[in-house]
Amino acid sequence: YEGKERVMEGCEVVHTTLQGHPANVNNSSSNRTYVTFRRAEKSASSDTLVVVDICVILGNRGEEPPLTFLKILKNLNKGMLGSDVYLCYKKAMVKTDVLSYKASILGRYPAEDY
C-alpha cells in the first residue's frame, strides 16, 4: 500500500504493466496498491522453493485458490465498493535449465497478426 507499508529490502515494485498502463491493483482512487517481488539469488540451491505462478481471485464471489496455490490474506481492493481481491501464488523448487534442446516456433496459426 503506497505510503502505508515499507517495501522489503531486495524487493522490486511493479509500477506499470507490459503495455505501460499503471499497475495499481486497487479500485480506490485515493490509495494505490502495487505488487512487489524479489528474485531468487543466482546462487540459490536447487531445493529452494520459489514462486512460479500467481493468480487473482475474488473472495466475495466465493472463489477459492486453485489446487496447490496459497492465498495472501490481504484484500488488494481497499475501496468502499467493489470486490474482495486476493493474490494467490504457487511455489515449486527452483530448477536449472532442464531442456536439452533450444526451443523454437515451428509454425503458427494465423501466420500473421491482424
UniProtKB/TrEMBL annotation:
Domain MABP: 1-93
Any one GO BP annotation for this protein: regulation of Rab protein signal transduction
NAD as UniProt keyword: no
PROSITE patterns registered for this protein in UniProt: MABP (PS51498)
Entry keyword set: Guanine-nucleotide releasing factor
The protein's name: MABP domain-containing protein
Source organism (scientific name): Arion vulgaris
A cellular component term, taken from the record's GO annotations: cytoplasmic vesicle
GO MF annotations in UniProt: guanyl-nucleotide exchange factor activity
PANTHER family according to UniProt: DENN DOMAIN-CONTAINING PROTEIN 4 (PTHR12296), DENN DOMAIN-CONTAINING PROTEIN CRAG (PTHR12296:SF30)
Gene3D superfamilies attached to this UniProt entry: 2.100.10.50
Gene: ORF25592
